[in-house]
Amino acid sequence: MQPFTYMRPTTAPDAVSAFASAGADARYIAGGTTLYDLMKLNIEQPRHLIDITAIAGLDKIETDGDRLRFEALAPMSAVATNDVIIRDYPVLAEALSKAASQQLRNMARVGGNLLQRTRCMYFRNGADGVYPCNKREPGSGCAALRGLDRGQAVFGTSDACTAVSPGDFPVALVAMDAQLEILGPAGSRTLPIGDLYRLPADTPHLEFTLAPGEMITAIVVPKTAAGRGSTYHKIRDRESYAFALASAAVALEMDGDQVSRAHIALGGVATKPWRAPEAELKLAGQRLTPEVALDAGRAAFSGASPGKYNGFKVELGARTVADALLIAAERSRS
Amino acid sequence: MTGSDDMPEDGKADTDNRTARSGFFTLSRRSALEGGAAIAAAAIFADASSPAKTATAAQSAPLPVASDQALTISATINGQPVAAEIDARTSLLDLLRERLALTGAKKGCDHGQCGACTVHVDGRRVASCLTLAAKIEGREVLTIEGLSDGAALHPMQQAFIDHDALQCGYCTPGQIMAAVACVAEGNATSKERIREYMSGNICRCGAYVGIVAAIEDAASKMERG
Amino acid sequence: MSTAPFPDRARIDAFDKVRGATEYAADIQFPGLLHAMTVTARIAKGTMTELSTDAAMRVPGVVRVLTPDDFPPPPPTGGEDGPPPPPPTLEKRIAYRGQPVAVVVAETLEAAIAGAEAVRPNFADEQFSCRIDSAGAESESTEDWTAGDAAEAMAGAATAIEATYESPTQHHNPIELLATTAVWADGRLTIHECSQGVNVTKGSVAGALHLDPALIDVKSAYIGGGFGQKGLAQRQTALVAHAAMLTGRPVKLVLPRGQIFHVATYRPNSRHRIQLGADATGKMVAARYHAEHEQSRTGFFSPAEYHESPIRMYGIENYLGTAANIRIDRQAPGYMRAPHPQASCFAFESAVDELAYKLDRDPVAFRIENDTKVDPKTGHPLSSRLLNECLTEGARRFGWSRRSAAPGSMTASDGTQIGWGVAAGCYPSMMPPAIATLRIGANGSTRFATSGHEMGQGIRTAIAAVLLEGLDINADKLDIVIGDTTAAPQHMTAGSWGTAGAVPVAAKAVERMRAAVSELLAGRTVAGNLHRQLATVRRPYIEIEVSQVGAGQNDDALAQLREGGFVVAGPEYPEFTTMSYIAHFVEVHIELHTRRIRMPRVVSIADCGRVISPRTAASQVRGGVVWAFSAALREATEIDRRYGGYLNNDLADYVVAVNADIGEIEVGFVDQPDPLANSMGLKGLGEVAMVGASPAIANAIFHATGKRMRELPIRIEHLL
Question: What was the ipTM of the complex prediction?
Answer without folding.
Answer: 0.98
